[in-house]
Design a protein that fits this description.
The complex is a heterodimer of chains A (341) and B (530). With 341 residues, chain A is of the alpha/beta class. Chain A has helices at residues 53-60, 145-161, 175-182, 194-204, 260-266, 280-290, 302-311; strands at residues 5-6, 11-13, 18-20, 28-30, 45-49, 65-68, 74-76, 79-85, 93-99, 102-106, 128-133, 165-169, 190-192, 214-215, 229-232, 248-253, 270-272, 294-300, 315-318. Chain A is globular. Chain B is 36% helix and 24% strand. In chain B, 39% of the residues are buried. In chain B, strands 4, 5, 6, 7, 8, 9 and 10 form a seven-stranded mixed sheet that branches. In chain B, strands 14, 15, 16, 17, 18, 19 and 22 form a seven-stranded antiparallel sheet that branches. Classes of the chains: A alpha/beta (341), B alpha+beta (530). Chain A binds chain B through residues 137-141, 258-265, 267, 269-271, 301, 304, 307-308, 311, 331-332, 334, and chain B through 12-15, 65, 67-68, 70-72, 74-75, 78-81, 84-85, 88-89, 92, 136, 416-423, 449, 453, 457.
């Protein structure tokens, strides 16, 4: 029997009695990162990277959670467990499990490019690699982050010069902070939606500093704001909250914005192709770097990507999970992100 | 190409007309004359015949990107647009070229007649020198259909702003036969006499659907009522003994309707007539499927002429003895039109009957009966109205009958294109025949974006089988399908063809078993297809 099996509750290691990113309540959960489709409610014990814990507490309430550092060794019933950086968002991890020569790496969500915010992805050699495939088609090819951030800053500067506020939509955890970290602060004031501010506060507990981004609340004198950048979650797009910032221009930052159809459907003025998931090249590179004998492809274009790997002589198969990738960013998520103000 | 690609990107990134107009005028201000002309032609739908086979383009794109064809096709299913898929899979640009739009178009056109290898070299080289947006636009030049939300009206408005001219004037001058190879915008819009262009049609006047109550229109006697004919809108031009027939899509279709080109022998004077091309026999219209046997057919056999003879049901006169009379009131134009029809000794020119109604209530009754006349409802035109350019409110209204409808079950869904790429938005519907569901119509309009996303999720969760971009789904969802007409068909399994099917509403209150039967459809066919 393999070290990890795929069950109805999630990925399961029987010997250590731990689940990884389970989607049904279990006793012991190892959490790759704090996004709500990977870190769900109802587990007796949670184990995650230190930086994920405050965020998880904020989202899940009082939980029994313990933090670990990257590379720290944990041993349960002969299974050696370590967390390694996944480069997806602050605190995100690939989880490596080793037992009697079998080495599994469950990569959760990841990207290879260094976003200068999260600890960069570290390739780990293994026998069995579990990979996402959110953008597992050759049409997804990201530009270097520097270029994308330049376009975002130019867009903001132009809007500011035209007397408009700029509202940029992205996940409140991860995408929002990545954008905040690279904004050209001299352009104008920076505001964040309450959902983003909550995440900033949680990350501040781990030493991240987004103090320059002001929370929009009832005291904010909105009428006086011009030329500001407001970072908000995608769910705020259709809310009345947005009207406060008129005149405004809107944009969405998501990997899906590379597709014209998704861009037009989203009905924003501009789309920036910015994703915290691996693009086509990165997915292939990650599989290669893992040196794995077997590859398990989860959420995304899983069957296509698995077929492609198989054609290239890699033993790859599709595994059905309940992870979602970036769907909520274009309003197509099955379960709602908790984005309350 | 850089500027034109930028224009397309700008047009694409907004739904606001003012922003689109601004993007267009900005482009016109910097583009060279040849580029300007091509831009106008392309955005107004004058794309030359496809110079390169798209099947080849797929192969080349896959080759250049180093991916197998099946993977390219999978990507295409997701992206939903061939030009875009190609632009996204190609490796990044090494060095940008500075070739202009018109240079590309000229080169593309010169490919016709040359061998495959020449096309391959050209296309691959072009791709290598372009950014993703430029590639997308370049591919669209070949595959066609920009759909960047620029209507003819908007293009005309941009030109009017740029050249400080009147919109109607520009619209008229850009009508008819011209190609960007032989013309320039500048030359077209300076042609005041139309000397270069004997066949030049006038822009069609299009009506909006009537949404308010008829009472808001005032007194019924101020209006001319006619049937709204379900044919092909056409403009018949007779000048200097030459006859031309234009479709609303600005296609010259004179040769396809010899019955109408024969009118050259019997029209009493030079004139331009607006009307509807209809299949017609024994003093009344034939169902639309008869006319369909004539559409797109360039050579017409004796057999077809006999089974589907056409006439022109005429309702307006735009030019009389060489004079543009569009500013005259409808009543005057109508009188002149009647005199022309009277003097024309041909049974293929038929006056669209003026219906008599003493009140709007009577008009309502006429409208309700219009389907029996194989009309789609009524047209209401103000007697003092000029003949305007394009779609305008106020003087002309179309007042359609309520569509026929039937409840049907969703059985197949296909991914859409453009805005609906990667969304299951094109559906096939079925009705019951015993315990079997028989497909009878496809529809893709009528749902809100939100409903469509809900159906999309249903499709993804309830897929039975996948065939490329199509999925068969558990027959569960019921929709009310509306349609304008119904005809027997040997091409469809159901034996029935619908005209303009669309979803009127999602019947969430119904389960599959509640949907209608094929017999129900057949009884509608019996009632409405004479």
């Amino acid at each position: 029997m393999p070290l990890i099996t795929f069950t109805e509750k999630g990925l399961y290691c029987e010997i250590a009695d731990v689940h990884i990113d389970p989607w049904r309540p279990v006793a012991n959960a190892l959490i790759t990162h704090a996004h709500s489709d990977h870190s769900r409610w109802g587990m007796k014990n949670y184990l995650a990277h230190h930086h994920s814990i405050p965020v998880m507490r904020r989202r899940l309430g009082e939980i029994n959670a313990q933090g670990v550092a990257y590379g720290e060794r944990i041993s349960i019933n002969g299974v050696e467990i370590r967390f390694y950086p996944a480069g997806h968002i602050p605190g995100s991890a690939q989880i490596r499990l080793e037992h009697k020569g079998e080495i599994w790496v469950v990569s959760g969500d990841y990207k290879l490019g260094d976003d200068k915010l999260s600890t960069p992805f570290e390739p780990i050699r293994c026998t069995d690699f579990v990979t996402e495939s959110t953008f597992g088609l050759p049409v997804f090819n990201w530009l270097p982050q520097k270029e994308i951030m330049e376009s975002i800053n130019q867009w903001w500067a132009k809007n500011a010069a035209d007397g408009f506020n700029s509202v940029l939509f992205g996940y409140s955890l991860g995408k929002a902070q990545r954008i905040l970290a690279h904004l050209e602060k001299s352009t104008g004031p920076i505001y964040v939606h309450g959902a983003v501010a909550n995440m900033n506060d949680a990350l501040a507990e781990s030493g991240y500093d987004f103090g320059y981004a002001q929370r929009v609340n009832s005291d904010t004198n909105i009428k006086s704001i011009r030329g500001a950048m407001i970072v908000a979650p995608p769910s705020a797009q259709s809310s009345a909250w947005l009207n406060k910032f008129k005149p405004l221009r809107t944009a969405t930052a998501s990997g899906w914005m590379s597709m014209r159809g998704a861009r037009r459907r989203r009905n924003v003025d501009t789309g920036f192709v910015l994703s915290d998931h691996a693009d086509w090249r990165e997915l292939n590179e990650a599989v290669q770097l893992s040196g794995a004998e077997r590859v398990y492809v989860t959420h995304g274009y899983s069957s296509v990507f698995a077929n492609w790997l198989s054609q290239n002589g890699i033993d790859a198969r599709v595994v059905k999970t309940e992870y979602e990738g970036e769907l909520a960013e274009i309003g197509e998520s099955q379960n709602k992100e908790p984005e309350a103000e | 190409m850089k500027h034109f690609a930028y224009l397309v990107a700008q047009l694409d990134s907004t739904t606001k007309t003012t922003a689109k107009l601004r993007a267009l005028t900005d482009y016109l201000a910097i583009a060279g004359e040849a580029d300007k002309t091509w831009c106008v032609a392309l955005l107004m739908g004058r794309r030359p015949k496809r110079p390169v086979n798209t099947a080849l383009m797929r192969q080349w794109a896959a080759q250049v990107s180093g991916i197998p064809l099946w993977l390219f096709e999978e990507s295409y299913f997701v992206v939903g647009d061939l030009a875009e898929t190609i632009s996204l899979v190609l490796p990044p640009v090494a060095q940008c070229s500075s070739i202009t739009l018109s240079e590309y178009m000229t080169a593309l056109l010169s490919l016709s007649g040359k061998d495959e290898a020449a096309a391959e070299t050209f296309v691959k080289q072009a791709w290598a020198g372009m950014t993703q947006t430029e590639r997308f636009v370049f591919n669209k030049l070949i595959t066609g259909g920009f759909r960047v939300g620029v209507s003819q009206k908007l293009m005309v408005k941009a030109l009017a702003t740029h050249y400080h001219m009147e919109e109607g004037d520009i619209a008229h001058k850009l009508m008819g036969k011209w190609t960007p190879q032989e013309n320039s915008v500048q030359r077209l819009i300076s042609d005041n006499e139309g000397i270069n262009n004997l066949s030049r049609p006038y822009p069609f006047y299009l009506a909006y659907p009537l949404e308010e109550s008829t009472e808001s229109l005032g007194c019924v006697s101020d209006w001319q009522l006619e049937y709204k004919w379900d044919g092909i809108r056409g403009q018949l031009i007779f000048r200097k003994n030459e006859i031309y027939l234009w479709s609303r899509g600005e296609e010259l279709i004179t040769d396809r309707f010899p019955e109408l080109s024969a009118l050259a022998l019997s029209l009493p004077c030079d004139c331009v007539i607006d009307g509807e091309i209809m299949a017609w026999q024994d003093g009344k219209p034939l169902p639309f499927n008869f006319l369909q046997t004539r559409i797109g057919r360039k050579t017409v056999s004796k057999q077809v002429l006999k089974t589907a003879p056409v006439v022109m049901v005429v309702y307006d006169l735009l030019e009389y003895k060489g004079r543009d009379i569009r500013e005259e009131p409808l009543s005057t134009r109508r009188n002149l039109l009647e005199s022309i029809v009277m003097e024309t000794n041909a049974h293929t020119l038929i006056l669209s009957e003026r219906l008599q109604a003493a009140s709007w209530d009577q008009a309502k009754t006429l409208r309700a009966q219009s389907r029996e006349k194989l009309a789609e409802g009524l047209m209401i035109k103000r007697l003092d109205s000029p003949y305007q350019v394009g779609r305008k409110r106020g003087y002309w209204w179309k007042w359609k009958v309520d569509p026929l409808s039937i409840d049907a079950v969703l059985i197949y869904a296909m991914r859409g294109h453009g805005r609906r790429a990667n969304l299951y938005s094109d559906y096939t519907f079925a009705v019951w025949q015993g315990t079997e569901l028989v497909p009878f119509a496809k529809a893709y309009s009528g749902l809100t974006d939100k409903e469509m996303q809900e159906v999309d999720r249903f499709v993804k969760k309830n897929t039975l089988e996948k065939f490329g971009p199509v999925r068969s789904v558990t027959p569960e969802l019921v929709f009310e399908i509306g349609f304008e007409g119904i005809a027997p068909s040997t091409r469809h399994k159901s034996g029935i063809a619908l005209r303009f099917p669309r979803m009127l509403r999602w019947r969430k209150d119904k389960v599959a078993a509640d949907a209608n039967t094929l017999d129900d459809l057949k009884s509608i066919l019996k009632n409405f297809n004479v």
